[in-house]
Structure formats: structure tokens, C-alpha cells
Amino acid sequence: MLFNPLLISLPSQGGKKGKKVTGEKGKGAGRMNGHYQENGMENLMLFEVVKMGKSAMQSVVDDWIEAYKTDRDMALLDLINFFIQCSGCKGVVSGEMFRNMQNSEIIRRMTEEFDEDSGDYPLTMAGPLWKKFKGSFCEFIAVLVRQCQYSIIYDEYLMDTVISLLTGLSDSQVRAFRHTSTLAAMKLMTALVNVALNLSINMDNTQRQYETERNKMVAKRANDRLELLLQKRKELQENQDEIENMMNAIFKGVFVHRYRDAIAEIRAITIEEIGMWMKLYSDAFLNDSYLKYVGWTMHDKQGEVRLKCLTALQGLYYNRELNTRLELFTSRFKDRIVSMTLDKEYDVAVQAIKLLTLVLHSTDEVLSPEDCESVYHLVYSAHRPVAIAAGEFLFKKLFSTREPEEEGAPKRRGRQSPNANLIKTTVFFFLESELHEHAAYLVDSLWESGADLLKDWECMTSLLLDDPVPGEEALTDRQETALIEIMLCTVRQAAECHPPVGRGTGKRVMTAKEKKTQLDDRTRMTELFAVALPPLLAKYSIDSEKVTNLLQLPQFFDLDIYTTGRLEKHLEALLRQIREIVEKHTDTEVLEACSKTYHALCNEEFTIFNRVDIARSQLLDELVDKFNRLLEDFLQEGEEPDDDDAYQVLSTLKRITAFHNAHDLSQWDLFSSNFKLLNTGIENGDMPEQIVVHALQCTHYVVLWYLAKVSEGSHRKEDMVSLRKQMRMFCLMCQRYLTNVNTTVKEQAFTILCDVLLVFSHQMVSGGREQLEPLVYSPDDSLQTELLSFILHHVFIDQDDDNDGQQDDEAAKIEALHKRRNLLAAYCKLIIYNVVEMNTGADIFKQYMRYYNDYGDIIKETMSKTRQIDKIQCAKTLILSLQQLYVGLVHVCIYADGIEFAFKEPSPQGEGNPPLHLAFLDILSEFSSKLMRQDKRTVHMYLERFMTFQMALQRDDCWLPLISYRNSLQAGGDDDTMSVVSGYSSRGSSVRSKKTKAATPTATVAAAKRRLPEVEESSSSSADMSWQHQSMQTPVMMPSPHLTSTMMRGPGDMRGEAKRGRDDSYIGVYALPSDSQQQPHPHTLPQTPQLHQTPIDYNTQVTWMLAQRQQEEVRQQQERAMNYAKLRTNLQQAIRRGTGLMEEDEEPIVEDVMMSSEGRMEDLNEGMDFDTMDIDLPPSKNRRERSELKPDYFDPGSIMDESVSNSLLLYS
Predict the structure, then answer these.
(1) Residue 709's pLDDT is what?
(2) Which of 196, 264, 965, 1090 could pair covalently with 921 via S-S, beta carbons 3.0-4.6 A apart?
(3) Side-by-side strand order, sheet with 35-38
(4) How many other CB atoms sit within 10 Å of the CB of residue 773?
(5) Which uninterrupted H or E stretch holds 31?
(6) CA torsion sign, 847 to 849 to 850 to 854?
(7) What Rg do the C-alpha atoms of the chain give, in angstroms?
(8) Can you tell me the distance from the alpha carbon of 285 to that of 274, in angstroms, rounded to the nearest whole number?
(9) Which strand (E) or helix (H) includes residue 35?
(10) C-alpha to C-alpha distances, 368 to 64, 340, 354, 500, nearest whole angstrom
């Protein structure tokens, strides 16, 4: 009978399918073009049935088995065509080909008929149908072996043919054949492992029955049963030998070739399946002979392969009974697993941490403190899955041991609870990690594994308020501060139910259970902290840091609890403590925390509003009255205010400003007093800096709150006129303060002025607010000029010019850069929203290349936005910026002509005397002050080209023109100091790299969330250049530059070059490192400078200047990148190896994921046997003479004999 799988007919118009027919073939059944025909209906082939996946796979297999029993050649031919079609080949193996041709010839013929128009094949095609196909394909093979395990697979025909075919296809040059056949062979091997496992169990049972029967008394012993059991055991042993041969054929013919295939998907398949073999049949496969393949492949260059290695090992380490067999493997590859926690693929890093957690769960002795330390730091990772996995590891390591509680004893609470020591351990860990500002990340990492511990707020408050018991060590001040911060983070996490900033994956819909947990936690925390917060504030009232954190707790309260729980007296105590803190402190952070607390409590939806509002109004009344009284005395004419009066005014002004940020204080008319204070500062010029800064900020709040009141719709004309007058007066005041001698005051005035101009621009009338038209204010030309001048003089400056006497540390430089970036962003907003003329952006755009690392992203975004607004005007602005750059080059060339004239004629008195026209340099020195800083360096380097070494040493009067001219060029013309955070201005970062290329640094910083752009050597138009490392030739004789590499090639970069000569098809995973290294190109020695030069035409000068500037820009960017790499390395060591915090995109941590081939393996393989290993299933557990397992085989050569080595050909 011909094989007729299910005989599924194509659906008719009515939508009904043909009936299932099994057994004998129906009348008229036949075969045409590879499809079965019955009663005029086309029936689907085996491939189509499996692809559709709508039928039970066991029925499909049973039909095929029936066909095989009837005509095994025809059924086997259908199975062969099934594998061919599953590979995407449209060719069909005919019966004649099957009978007369070898497998290699058939595969060659199918290769010729393969459709190569598209690279897709069933295993790689997109779509829901093909996604299910792989599962159906694997299921078919598993079911086929399971259904045939008792008879057909031992006929020495079916399995031999299939294994031979799959082995040949797996060595094909066609990727589709190789991929599909490897998957089929590995699934076939897995199915055979299950068969072998069943045989082993049956043999053990038979052996046990035989031993039981033989041990009976002779009279009761059944000899026929003994013979039957012996015969059965013999048959099982023969079947086991057959299975061993099949598995050996697949392992040697497919696995040892394909686990090093050039295609990552194929390598991943092999590793995934060998993990299944070791897990299913550990007695046979869980030994070093097979584990070594997983260990070697953990160094694979593709993340998906490394991921399969880790998941395979997790299945083994999860079973504690297997730990003893994994000891040698763990000792050999533990370091590699630990290093994979910093893998550049986040999924790999997560699974590596989970694997180490399983290792830790099995035994504490394997992982050293250094190994654990490398995982601990990952709790601060910006990638949440990595942090959660690290948190679980940390929790199991440090918090899994609790003090046992006595049975029947009352449950200990507070300071005496079992969690007390664990909370202290959390505090100690947080302090030792030296990342004090990232407690929220630590809490989020531990939340899933230790939420019950972190939500034990009663124990935390007890540790802070209660006295320690005798013999217990009290918390230090630093530990109390850390505990309060952790407690605040746990409250926030429980109330908001989302991770901290930088770890969020978007808004997630909470389940009903999560919402109920959130409500219960808020209720519990409110009931607890409503009582505990006032005494906590009273105890730490003088500590600014502790108070700031404690005052944030009421923001997460359920305020109804104050009424429903009859906690009004505790509310009164809280308000008294907040009032006392406001009176004691002048720190801005503390005052703003008090302001936010009042704002959270003053919610009209709750009944406590009136009580809190009265307390707030009383406090503000006293503050405003005190400020007006102090201000009157402070500004009294004829008297010089002392420092105490200035301090009183400043402290009161700070409190009012902090409250005005969150509360409307319009009823107290603060504009007049603040404006009077600012006006006095302008007139006298001796107003303290901080008073002016806070007066400007407070007045800004006054104007904004007034605008909010007017914008509500119910306003009078008088209010509109008054607001317009106040706004214009305030803008004029800020403009006057732009010329203040104090930099902080100028920056504050500039920032506020930009905000006010943006708020009161023509944009405010959009959205149906035409009534606000009278308030629109556009800056005049003088104001626009002053704003632009401020940007050019305070933003586009060298790093060392902005220190102002500060200590030259990295943190100060980072803070200074962030401040300048904010100033530039504020001005660029004015350009984007058409508040200032677009052509003012020309002076900004021309700085793009020179300050690319610091401000490149801001300038580029501004260019993009202006282009969207007006393409023509944007183009004109860009042309204007290019014209300005060109004019700067022309000025430099003019100075070059003067220098050439001064050195053109030699001295008539002979060598050693100054040139004839050297005095012309006195004239040029008068114009040096007109040059920009970077142009001075350019001209100075050009001057040095005409000077000899002897000239630089001359100090006689006749050489004074040269000396004075050099000094005029060197004044303020030193080399730029690198901006240490030059990389913080670009967008997006890759997370997590250990290596930083000198020419293209990529790094991130938590607050900036940006990536360093790549330095392009070919694109640079900056004039900030020097020729410090260039040859001393004239422009006329300027040679073509030598292109030499600036990067050193490591061993990993040069490995495999010698091996490529032997076999280019290998992927190079295990290639030997090359001993030869590339010799660098010899550098060209600089030529001796000549005193007298041939006159140079103007175009040549411009060309030479551009070339020199371009080369110098590349050099400076490379130098900045190298210095930045050093800085970034230091930062990474303090945070975690390669991971920044609060990043949107983490930078890759591990780039070198490949092992250094056999050179690295030598340390693992000393004294190991190199013989090819055969699969040897273990004998019956009750067999008396049991063979020993083979010793350790951690050696790449142990898998290949000479014949295998010669046949290992990999194709891409």
C-alpha cells in the first residue's frame, strides 16, 4: 500500500474537508507529481500535513508506519522527500534515484535544483504559519522514533538510511540543507536518548527480576522464567548496542562538525540538544567528555549560542544530585561563567547570573568573595532584568540565613525581629558599595526576592528610634542616614509600584492583585509613619540630609487615614515639626522638601485641608512680614548693612522662594519688595551674590503665578496691564544683570530671561488664548545681541577658563559642562521657537565641529528644528556661518603674509643676525589682540615654522620684535584643556563595554543619558588647531601624509591568520594565536626648517591652513577621546564594571566574548587523553562488573580523529 498520510483533501467551496481514510488505498488511488490522488481529489503530502499542523502528529506517524510496513522503499522515499522539502528545496527524489544513486549524488542533484532566488527556507521564513512549523517538524521526528522504538528502528534499514541522509545533508554547502538536517539529526538523537533511557530502565528491572528469581529456593525457582528473563535481557542489551551505534553515528557525523559551524543558529541547536542529553540521561552523558563542548562554546562570538550554553547548564545545576559530577567542570569554567555576567548581550548576562545563583544554592564554597563581588555590583545596573537577577543572587548570599525562632514563643517585632540583622546587613552593603545616591536601584533590585524584608518598616523605625539592647551595637550616624534613605525608597516603591527612573520599561497595567497589594501597603505605611514620623523629625531635626528624606514620606500617604484612624493629633505634631524645621534650616533642599510636604497635605479633597492650610498661612505670614521688615532696614539709606543683616535677609528670602515655587503667594505682593532689592543692587553694585540670585528667582515665580491667574479666564483688564508692566520691568532688570561682574548672577539672569521670553512669546496665544495677545513680548535687537554675546563668552570657552579658581577635579568639570549645556539649550529654544532671529544661530552653528563632543547633539537638534520651520532661512543661516568661518581663515592668512615678509630677506651682516625686515613684527603685534584664541595658536605655529632653534634662544635687543610678537600670540593661546565629559552630549549608548576605542569613544553618564559620537577623521572644519606634531616643511613642499594605524592589534585581532592559510572555512573560534605581529610603518623624520622661503600664493595658503586645521582637529579629538577613556574607566570601577546608572541605553560590557582558541585551552588540558570518544551507554546498575566512567576530557582534540579532522569543512 502506498503511504497516504491522513489523506486530507483540499477544502471544497462549502468549506468541508475530505474525510480521513486509513488502511487500504481507495479505488483509483495513485501518485502524480509527488502528490497523492484519490477519487479525483488532491491529497496533501507529508510536508504539507506537518506544515499545516492541524492534525494529531501521532496519527500522521501511525499512517506512515503502516505504509512502511507495506512498502518500506516507497515510505522511506516519502520520508526522504519530506526532509528535502522541509529544507526549502523544490526538487523531488524519484524512486529511480533512490535505488540507483548514492546519498552524495542525490544531495548534489538536489543542490542543483535548489531555488536560490531567495535565501529564506521554512526554518527561517516569517509569518505565524512558519513559526509553528519548527515545532511541528521537531514533534514529528520525536513521535516517529517513539512509535518505532520497539520494532522498526532495529531493522537496520530505516535508521541507517535516515542517519546517512541527514549526515550528508548536514555537510552540504547549502545553508538550508545544513540547518534543517542538523536540527533533524539533533532531535533524532534526543529521541534516541529517550529510547536508550527506557532500555536502561527495562534492563535494570529485568536484572532485578532475574536476581530475585535466582535467589529463590531451588524448589520454588522457575527455570523457564529464568530463561525467559535471560533472553529478554539479551534482547535489551542487543537493542542498547544498536542505539549506541546510532547515537555514535549521529554524534560523530553531525555534532562534532556542526557545533563549530559558521552559522550561529546551527551551533545553538547542537548545544541546546547536548544539554538535553545530559539532563535526560545523566548516567551516560553527564561527564567531562560531553561537558567540555558546552564549556568551549561559552566563548562563542554570538550571544544566542552563549545563551544556549547557560540554559543547558542551568538544567544541570538545578538538580542537586548532579552536583558531584559537575565539580571538575565548575572548577575549570567558573571564571568564564563569572565573566559572562558582564556580557554585552543582556539576555546572556541575566542567565549567567541565574546560573551562578544555582551554583551558589548548591554549595557556598565554589564562588570566591571576588566572584560574588563582581555580581553584587550589578544590582545597580540600569538594565532591570540584570539587576533583578543580581538582586536574587545577593539575597540568597547575604539574606537567606535567618535566626531560628523558638516554637511557641511570641513573634518578635521591631528591633528584636529576625529582620533586624538583615536590614542592618542591607545598610552595610549599601555603604560598602560606595554608591550612596543609588539606594532606589538597590531597593528595586531586591524587591522581587526580598519584598517582605524591605517592607518591614516597623523594624526600620524601631532601629532609628529605640535604644539598643545591652550588648547590641548602635547604628552610626552614617548608617542611620543610609537606613532612612533606604526606608524612603521602599516606601516609594510600594506606593508607586514602578521601578526608578532609568529602569522603566514603559507603563504597565497592574493586575487586580497588584492593585490590592498597593492599597494595603499604602494603608499600612500611613498608619505606621503617621505616628512615627513626628518623633523621627524631632530626633534628626538638625540633620539636613536625614530631614530631607523623612519629609518626603507624607507624599505617599493615604491622607484619609488621618481622619478615619483618628490620627489628628499626630498630624498636628507633624505640622509643628515642619514649622520648626523651616525656622532652623536655610538649605534649599530642606526648604523645598518642606514646601512639597505642605503641598501634598494641602489637598482640598481631604478633610485635613483646612487644618493644614491654616498652619501654612500662618507660617507664610510670619515669613513675609519678617522679610519686609528686614528689607526695610537692609536698604535704609545712609547706613552700611552688616553681614548679619545680609544673612537674615538671605535666609528669609530663601524660605519664601522655596515656598513660592509650589504655592501661590500672590496675596502678599512680593514683586515690589524684590524689585526694589534688585534695583538697589544695580545702583550700588555691592549686593551679595546669593541675595540677587534668590531675588531674581522669587520675582520669576511672582510673574509666573500672576500669568497662571490671568490665564484661567476670569481676569480684569487691570490685571493684564499690571502683569504686562511687571513682566517688562523684570525683563529689563534681568538684561541689566547680564553685565554683572559675578558669573553666578549673570547665569541666573540669563536662564530666567530665556524662560520669560519663551513663556511670553507669540506661542502663548495658541490654543484659543487670543485674549493674552497684549502680553506677547519680543526682544529687541540689543537684547538679542546681549543674549548671543553671553552664549559666545560663557559657553563656547575652554574648560580651564571656566574653573574660576575651583579645584581642578573631574566632578567640578562635569558640573561646569552641564551648566554650560543648560545655558546653550535655553538659548537654542529661543531660536527654535522663533523668539530671536534665526540668523543669530549662525554664530552657534559654526561652533558645531569645534565643540562637537560637548554640544554637538544640541546644535544638531537645533539645526534640524530650524530646517523644519523654514528651509530657506535655515540654509541662509548655515551659509552665513560658513562665511564667518571663511573670513576667520582669511584673517589668519593675512598674518601669514606679514610673517613671510618679516623673514623674507636675510640679514646683510650674515648668519646669526636678525632678518632685514624683522621689525615688521612690531606692527603685527599691535593686531594680535584682534585674533581669537584658536587663531592665535594657528598663527603662532606658523611663526615657529620660520624660526630656528637659535632664534628661540636669542635675547638681544635686535630680536625684541620677534620676542614681543611671540609673547602677544602666546597670551591666552595655550592648548585647550580637554573637556572630561565631552562624550556626555551625544545621544544613546551601547551599555556596557569594557573597551574604549581611542578614536571613537562610546560612554554614558547617569545624568546626561547620551553617547559620545564617533570621531570622523575626514570631517573637521574647526580652526582650533596646532602643528605640534607636523613636519617643518613649507606649504609648497608639503608631502602627502602617511596613513598609519593608531590602534594596536591585540592577540584576538590577529588570531587565525596562520590558520586561514590551512582552512578558510573554519570560523576561527579555536584558532591558534599568531606569533607574528605587523610592523608599524616607519615615521617620516621632519625636515630641517629653512629660514628663507619662496613666496606662497594666496590659494595655496588657504589650502594649507585648512589641511593643517583638519589634521590638528583629528589629533585633538583623538587625545580627548584617550583622556576620556581613562576617566570613564575610573568611573566604571566605582560604579560597576561597564555599567552606568540611570541610562536609557546601556553600553556593552564584554566585547571579547571569544576564547583565545587552543592557546587558552592548553591550561585546561594538561595530561588529558586525545583519543576520539565513543558513546558508551552505562550497563545495568545491578551488573556486577560495571565499567568505570572515562576521565576528564577537556581537550578540543579529543573529539576528532584523523579522519574526522580532515572532513571538518564549514560553510557560510
Answers:
(1) 87
(2) 965
(3) 30-32, 35-38, 41-43
(4) 11
(5) strand 30-32
(6) positive
(7) 41
(8) 8
(9) strand 35-38
(10) 56, 16, 17, 31
352-379: pLDDT as tens digits: 999 999 998 887 788 999 999 999 999 9
Q: Which of 548, 351, 592, 387 is nearest to 1142 (CA)?
A: 387
Retrieve residue 608's grid coordinates: 485635613
Helices (H), 738-778: 743-759
Nearest alpha carbon to residue 428 among 390, 380, 476, 465: 476
Nearest alpha-carbon partner for 996 in 1041, 1047, 1034: 1047
pLDDT tens digits for range 1171-1202: 345 566 555 444 333 333 333 333 333 333 33
For residue 1178, the model assigns a pLDDT of: 57
Per the structure block, which three cell numbers stand in for 230?
535471560
Smallest Cα–Cα separation from 174: which of 261, 50, 274, 51? 261
User: Measuring CA to CA, how many Å separate 736 from each of 726, 732, 808?
Assistant: 15, 6, 32
User: Alpha carbon of 442 to those of 357, 359, 382, 431, 1130: distances in Å?
Assistant: 18, 23, 11, 11, 21
Q: Which of 383, 384, 386, 365 is nearest to 374 (CA)?
A: 386
Ordered DSSP codes for 82-95: HHHHHTT------H
- The pLDDT, as a whole number, for residue 1074 is 37
Nearest CA among 325, 314, 241 for reference residue 289: 325
Tell me if 282 sits within 8 A of 320, measured CB to CB.
no
Spatial separation of the C-alpha atoms in residues 422 and 413, rounded to whole Å: 14
Amino acid in the structure at residue 919? A
The residue ranges of the chain whose pLDDT is under 70 are 1-44, 53-55, 115-118, 401-414, 435-436, 505-506, 637-641, 713-715, 799-808, 972-1212
Classify strands 41-43 and 35-38 as parallel, antiparallel or unpaired: antiparallel
CA angle 888, 893, 896 (to 5 degrees): 135
For residue 1123, give the amino acid letter: N
- Residue 987 is predicted with a pLDDT of 35
Cβ distance 972 to 1128 under 8 Å?
A: no
Q: What is the pLDDT of residue 6?
A: 35
Angle between helices 369-376 and 384-398 (to 10 degrees): 140
| pLDDT for position 384 | 92
- Residue 353 CA to residue 339 CA, distance in Å, equals 10
d(CA 381, CA 445): 9
CA distance 860 to 876: 16
CA–CA distance, 1076 with 1073 (Å, rounded to integer) = 9
Give dist(CA 409, CA 404) in Å, integer: 11
Q: How far apart are CA 77 and CA 72, in angstroms?
A: 8
Nearest to 51 by CA among 112, 173, 134, 154: 134
- The β-bridge partners of 37 are 30, 42
- pLDDT at position 120: 80
Cα separation, 460 vs 1039, whole angstroms: 74
- Sign, CA dihedral 551-555-557-563, equals positive
Whether residue 308 contacts residue 271, with contact meaning beta carbons closer than 8 Å, is answered with yes
Residue of 464, 461, 459 whose CA lies nearest to 475: 464
Distance from C-alpha of 1058 to C-alpha of 63, rounded to nearest angstrom: 54
Q: Which of 1005, 1141, 1147, 994 is nearest to 384 (CA)?
A: 1141
Task: Report the alpha-carbon distance of residue 1033 to residue 1090 in Å, rounded.
Answer: 8
Burial code (b: 16+ CB inside 10 Å, e: under 16) for 463-489 equals: bbeeeeeeeeeebeeebbbbbbbbbbb
Residue whose C-alpha cell reads 616643511 in the numeric block: 1033
DSSP string, 390-416: HHHHHHHHHSS--PPPPTTSPPP-GGG
Residue 1077 CB coordination number (10 Å): 10
Sequence-distant (≥ 6) Cβ neighbours of residue 727 within 8 angstroms = 703, 707, 756, 760, 775, 777
Query: Which parts of 318-401 fold into alpha helices (H)?
Result: 327-339, 346-362, 369-376, 384-398
